[in-house]
């Protein structure tokens, strides 16, 4: 499969499709930093600028045209200029390029806001233009979180096949799986919280205490209760959820139970309680290997028991460029390139964040590419 890519960015399509042996005929990108990334990783591939200036078969015949034209004019977070915006109008320029190149397949990506832009007329105009060129189309909203990356990223993908809508539909749509749509239960399962509160092991004759609302839960001595960790001892362990306040300081034991506090004693307010509450706060940085990186700890002594003080910092830690690369499915340091006379290890973060934020999610593109290859192989048999 030989393909051309426009509005290439840092080429999620090529990162997704290279393992299938597909050959990029050309890239097209106008932003300086993404162009530098493409030149660094793919120096042998022709790199065009403004894709509206690509002439018919300028880079040879292609089988597929892919592009994610600018989304700002369609996004619900913008002014929603739609096709009247120069950036939005590039979607129609994509159609004109498809007319010049006449590839068998097209893949176009944008934000879900395109579906409602202009009351739906903008998206209808784009589909209508492609249909007038002879493409049968299918479109679907795919969310990257269901393709193996840790982010919710919903995007509209349009797949077209020249002369027939059925191959496009076969790419994007799937049959129900065997495990889906389980039969409805014959009885309401309201005992789950009670069972969790009682602990994983036998009750040993202790009276079962159900969860109270969503704020308090009582478990057995020294047992694992669902996602909570109990303090070992001979007395009953009580778990109480406290509101998270990032401006307070909490002292308590080292036993951390998620976002819940853990008290060892008869009751949370009992004088028999040895230690105060412990709260995990998702701010700050910890130097202690015993604690998560989101906490900052300081050891102290209180009531003859060792305790830990947790301090909520004033700012949330920002994602690193490598973490953003992983969120989009790229290899680590993919965007760390020599830039403006600086080596790759000194590449600034700003342009890396922007390039990654504008990119497609690699796993979604991989899934689409593999489906296109499967359908195309099937068609070639007849």
Helix/strand layout:
Layout: E1 2-6, H1 12-17, E2 23-28, H2 32-41, E3 47-48, E4 64-67, H3 86-101, E5 105-110, H4 121-132, E6 135-143, E7 154-162, H5 166-172, H6 192-198, E8 216-219, E9 224-225, E10 228-229, E11 237-240, E12 249-252, E13 261-264, E14 297-302, E15 305-311, H7 321-328, H8 349-357, H9 362-380
Parallel strand pairs: 1-2, 1-4, 2-3, 4-5
Antiparallel strand pairs: 5-7, 6-7, 8-11, 9-10, 11-13, 12-15, 14-15
Q: Notable features of this structure?
A:
382 residues, alpha/beta, Rossmann fold, 2 domains, 7-stranded mixed beta sheet, 3-stranded antiparallel beta sheet, 9 helices, 15 strands, 19% strand, globular
Question: Can you tell me about this structure?
Answer:
This protein is α/β, with parallel strands linked by helices and 382 residues long. Helix content is 25%, strand content 19%. A 7-stranded mixed β-sheet has the order 3-2-1-4-5-7-6, with helices on both faces. Strands 8-11-13 form a 3-stranded antiparallel β-sheet. A 3-stranded antiparallel β-sheet has the order 12-15-14, with no helix packed on it. A hairpin with a 2-residue loop joins strand 14 (297-302) and strand 15 (305-311). Residues 189-268 and 270-313 have low confidence and may be disordered.
CATH superfamily of the largest domain: Vaccinia Virus protein VP39
Give the low-confidence spans: 189-268, 270-313
Summed over residues and divided by their number, the pLDDT gives a mean of 73
Q: Record the strand order, biggest sheet.
A: 3-2-1-4-5-7-6
Helix content class = 10-25%
CATH architecture of the largest domain: 3-Layer(aba) Sandwich
User: How large a portion of the residues is in β-strands, by DSSP E?
Assistant: 15-25%
Assembly state: single chain
